[in-house]
């Protein structure tokens, strides 16, 4: 008997749209999720995802930590646990972040399911339907998606090679006030190795941004998933060091340890912690206990730092390989950012090429990227730009992929 | 140098309340979370939590699965993964649920961070501010908390010893329409071994509920965290077998494997899957990859079923111990439900005792429970009731704890 078909045969189809919330009616699928499906085939060279290099995952360390933790304190590591997060992990994070000046103490850190959940909790706590949020132009796609689910609207501030053009914030603020009759809820900033732009905000712009935020009485969301992955230059103090009282800082283990653990964190002003705990508890009670114990064990044994050093070495080489290949193979009129760290660079092709249209031609050459328009909340830019990831593919494949893209671009230009 | 105090000294305190969403202003802390803090001390006999017995966690199986998975496919098990969930795990779940008649196929299952996240995603997709939700009276606290965060209001339907009094649903529906001018969004039901009531909805009431839901054009949320933990009687088909097109069914590994993995799932009509994926992706991209691989490995190796058989045996003994102790030690005028499964029973004490007030006296005797009022969304009942968990404590401690409560109750009655 085919149980499955018997069970599912003749189920009437109900139209659920009348039951959906207004919130849900505005949700859309991530373009990237759809794109990534196209790029799963094994012969595709994908610069599209934001994937860390899986061959560098600290497998042995994670395996050992699993064994040790389950044997030593399995009954705790597999039980329900505190909404706040695992105390020893918070202790480690507080100390580790002091290196960058982040004013973290165990009491103002909340562990989340990757930093995507941090973005969601921020939406839940701060966004009313129709409210404006200020972001860069382009900005991180996951933030757009998280906040659209709370019916946010967006006003944007341009980016140049040094990241967000801070002098435009006040103008964007005024537009939000004019359009909604109230101030925007916060400004969202990715100061280090911006996703997708690959830019880094210099110290003086961070100071200026802090001044503007304070002057406009605007909270700041400082998203820093790549801060540890710097390949050149000096660390620059995060914005939260200047205006800790109005900054919510986000970190993650997804790029330094492994994304499949789903471990990120929030550092917030202590007056906000109770609110985040309420939101987090309603969302999923707490972050996975086992993965927190495992991450904590790896950190406590001092295994994360040497691993991150190794990541920096390999990713720097891949970035350099991509930069060299772009210079060698791409047509005149193209340009790209020179990221000091992170996983991405932002490339512009000659104006006559629409990267959304060109995507099919690239895929025919078995290469994938993300079209620039995806990163513009109002879809008003990035038509001749694309995000290229350099962490996932080997140097050989990077050269091949960039060369194939270059050839396809040249062909498109001469048609 | 004391870095921490230097970093955090003199941070001005900002009042964030003007920045909060209307949603956030209505959030409150879980009473249980606050209570559980009081009951962490080691000499407390706690019937308050909903914790599975940690000494029964399948530690060896989980440890072996971690080792096997990380060695065999660590690069996949630690990478970003599909929002839908790990395909082999969905295959297993679909087949496993067919035993109960749940019309699950891999394409209508979504893995979540425990079933609390399922409740959150449901709130996100279906609840507008001020909308009514219909629940039992009492009902699961986590659902109240999840949906209050989306500004839900509640109308409730009484429970008797057979669970939800289905004949009252239409009345509650009409009250919601009268109070909000629109239909309630859905009805939330826990048919098996209700938390907190310990009741089980008989087959004819399930059929009647399905008829009422169809007649009122009302979606049904069927929450079934304890269905596998039946200690007597026959399995009863879930409501989703009768009205699959309008039921969202929720399951979890928290009670059968381990809560610290944070693994639950949704089975929904296939037309809804895209909406759930959008909501889930904005919330946290996907559920932890490693824990899904580990759970899948344990299931595929056939280790879950014998483990659940062991749980049933131990928990049945604990339930019986608690029922016997209640009969022996509690004062006349008390009564309690006789759960056929699950983790909880619901006890009523003589009317003159308020279980919220009595909590302090119980704690002085080093015993904890959850006061009944916590489970009433409108705080309009449960004054002389309490939820007692029987899965966490050993039989010896169950007898001691119930005896101490009985003595304290008798003292309170004679004062």
Number of domains of chain A: 2
CATH topology (level 3) name of the largest domain in chain A:
Aspartate Aminotransferase, domain 2
Distance, first to last CA of chain A: 58 Å
Q: How large is the share of residues in beta strands of chain A?
A: 5-15%
| Unreliable parts of chain A | 1-5
Question: What brief labels describe this structure?
Answer:
homodimer; Aspartate Aminotransferase, domain 1; Aspartate Aminotransferase, domain 2; alpha/beta; globular
Question: Can you walk through the features of this model?
Answer:
- The structure is a homodimer of 415-residue chains.
- The first copy, chain A, is α/β, with parallel strands linked by helices and 415 residues long.
- The first copy, chain A, has two domains: 25-58 and 306-414, Alpha-Beta Complex (Aspartate Aminotransferase, domain 1), CATH 3.90.1150; 73-300, 3-Layer(aba) Sandwich (Aspartate Aminotransferase, domain 2).
- Helices cover 42% and strands 13% of the residues of chain A.
- Chain A has helices at residues 3-8, 22-25, 31-38, 59-77, 87-98, 114-126, 141-148, 169-180, 203-216, 273-284, 289-300, 304-329, 355-364, 395-414; strands at 45-46, 109-112, 132-137, 153-160, 163-164, 187-189, 220-223, 247-252, 264-267, 335-336, 344-348, 367-368, 370-371, 385-389.
- In chain A, α9 (203-216) links the parallel β6 and β7 (220-223).
- In chain A, α6 crosses α10 (273-284).
Short structural summary:
Chain A is α/β, with parallel strands linked by helices and 415 residues long. Chain A is built from 14 helices and 14 strands. Chain A folds into two domains: 25-58 and 306-414, Aspartate Aminotransferase, domain 1 (Alpha-Beta Complex); 73-300, Aspartate Aminotransferase, domain 2 (3-Layer(aba) Sandwich), CATH 3.40.640.10.
